Amino acid sequence: MITLAEWRTRAATALRNGRIEDGITACRAVIEADQGDAESWYNLGYLLRCDRQFGEALAAYGAALAAGIDRPEEVHLNRAVILSEYCGRIGDAVIELHAALALAPTFVAAWLNLGNLHEDAGDPAAAREAYAQVLALDPGNGRAHARIATIDIFEGHADVALPALRQALASLGLSPADAAEAGFALGAALDAQGRYDEAFAAFAAANRAALQAAHPGYRYDSRRQEALIEATIAATPRPIPAGTDDAEPPIFICGMFRSGSTLIEQMLSRHPRITKGGELEIVPAFAAALGSPEALRDLPAAALATMRAQYRDEVCRQFGDVDRLTDKRPDNFLHIGLIKRLFPNAKIINTTRNSLDMALSIYFLYFDDSISYGHDLRHIAHWVEQYRRLMAHWRSLYPHDILDVSYDRLVADPGPVMAEVLAFCDLPWDDGVLHPEQADGPVRTASVWQVRQRLHQRSSGRWRHYARHLQPLIATLGGDV
Q: CA angle, 77 as apex, 313 and 109 as ends, to 5°?
């Protein structure tokens, strides 16, 4: 018989080694013997979140609070993240953050997350207030400086953002991450004023700082990326005939980052039959669990059925019983083979854009470490080439189920493009799709403020302002999509 002490040891070992199922089992065993073990409830909440059991994770975190966990504000923050990112319960997430701040008014992470949620909801005044609280506690916080500057730029006051950003960047002891955050915002403010050479210099410095801040394990490896694409192509199973799964599948929107995926989803969400799903993590989580592209080739039908049911259960918990749902995850282009195995009838919208505009837009944004190619124009070009290669493969397999939608065509003449998109999705025309700025609900991407504007063409051909800095990129990519 396993003793309580042994279960505690097993739980700690599993947690340390990332063995999720073993950790859940061990934590439950500890809790069964000691219901008041706050730390085990907390660890169980974390492990359940990793296992995408979000409702159960919320309950476990709640039990940790009831058991008197130390630093309860961190538990409220964790609950807020689950509620906002995985359950679509933004109001409840805000309540959790206020609970955290009532316990710890100087909790910077909670103020930052509160600002993010206010931005997602389209409330710049409330977001600005939250970020001001951050700066009162941490004057060198690059994220808060950057987000306030982004709101200033959105409101047409780039000149207001510049002095604060320059002062922040001149601070002694600024971390590389803070320097990167403020540096990208400085570049954006200069770009908004048409000071393009100064802007490019600021973006280049910000990318150098971002590389310095990045974990070495996330550095871009071109050979590894080529090997992944080769393995994905080689392992792609034979397409399953349409009609195998009778239920209405989601509309998957993918493509390169900064190619217009948020805009097309925002436009589609104005259709009365479509619910906006945003950047769901479900398909990438399935792909990560498989471990390699080769694992998909021999995946039994029963395993696919289980994954399909898990996908639908998670969507239903978050959005209810909806008619048509969009799943907008740009890097799902890597997983189209898996998507078509799960949902043989799935329609896939692949957003495209002028390659130079797209590459420049990636270079001008501070992504997290998972976008490891984003801080070097050569790496961006290499990623684009690998994306093109894989998409050509998917089109050869699913020529009638993938629609390329050009951002540049869309903003120039949206009517015909959206008519084509709706016909592709077997949906009737609705005039609302031409007014994305009127869409409801939060926006949780880097385009949080841009998509709330009326359609415009200001970002098409933007690369020409920076042509003198882009000659190697032009030679590699050209100007096409």
A: 130
